[in-house]
Structures are given as C-alpha cells and as structure tokens.
Amino acid sequence: MRLYLDCEFTRLSAAAKLISLALVAEDGREFYAELQGTWRLEDCSDFVKEIVLPQLWGGEYAMPLIEARLALLRFFATYNEELNVVTDAPAYDWGLFCELAYHDGKWPKNVRNFPTDAATPTAMNDEEELPHYALLDAMIIASMFTARA
Fold first, then answer.
1. What is the DSSP letter of 126?
2. Cα 101 from Cα 54, distance rounded (Å)
3. Where is 145: in which H helix or E strand?
C-alpha cells in the first residue's frame, strides 16, 4: 500500500522544524496532524508565515509531538500490509517523517524504512499557484500515481 506524504516545515534549511504532516493512502484514507510546541513563529521563513501558517486548521489536528506520533502509529496499525511512503521532497519530508515515525528507538514494523521518490508534482491548475498545504499536496502526489495506475 502506498502512502503519499507531504510535510510543511519552518524553512528550507537543515534546521527545518515540522509544522504539519499529511499522508494520503491508495485506499483513500488520510492522516493529518499539525505539531504544537515544536516550532516557533521566529523559526519560520517569511514565505511560511505568509503562505503556510494561514492554512493550518488547528482544532483537533493541532497536537503536541507525542500525541501526533501516537496518532500516526495508530494510523499505521490500521494496515495489515507493508506501507510504502512516497514523497516528492525526500530531502526534507522524509527526515521530518522519520522524526515523527520513530518511537522508543523503533521503526514501525509495517512501514518500509526508505521512501519512494516521486517527481515534483505538476498539478493541472490552470496556471494558478497551488497553496503549500500538506494535505492538499499529499493528495496531488497521490493523484499523480493513481492516474498512472
């Protein structure tokens, strides 16, 4: 089962901190979480402040790191098959995903421990710039693969 991953984070640098993470599965199930307490506004680039942060949902999706990790692990546990994570930005998204997925020094048993690198998505959007929003971006990546299947 492929899970299409996208993350939003504070800035394009090695010091990036995870803001939100989304997974869209081939079977249509979705996981979305926004991290609280792991990043500060001062950590964010101007781009993130202007484009990413206004799109956060908050509410039930905003959670501390431990709660987000446990929610992610519960999501993985709903699958009986191997999960293959696909991302268009492995240099950033995969590392941030790993930070959330590791629990007590263990990797989830049913998740492959390396990503599938997707080409950068080129969505059909009538030349409008798409918002940088983790759940929407994960859906776009998923649509790239399902359109080919």
1. T
2. 26
3. helix 134-148
Determine contact, residues 112/83, Cβ cutoff 8 Å.
yes
Give me 65's structure tokens. 């790191």
Residues 5/93, Cβ–Cβ less than 8 Å = yes
Other CB atoms within 10 Å distance of the CB of residue 13: 11
User: Token pair for residue 13?
Assistant: 């640098």
Tokens for 134? 């983790």
Q: Three-state SS for 120? A: coil
**Contact of 2 with 145, CB cutoff 8 Å:** yes
- Tens-digit pLDDT profile for residues 125-148: 444 555 677 888 788 778 777 755
Alpha carbon dihedral 65, 68, 72, 75, in 10-degree steps, equals 160
Any residues with CB less than 8 A from the CB of 36 and at least 6 apart, and which?
62, 63, 64
With 0.90 as the threshold, say if the pTM is over it: no
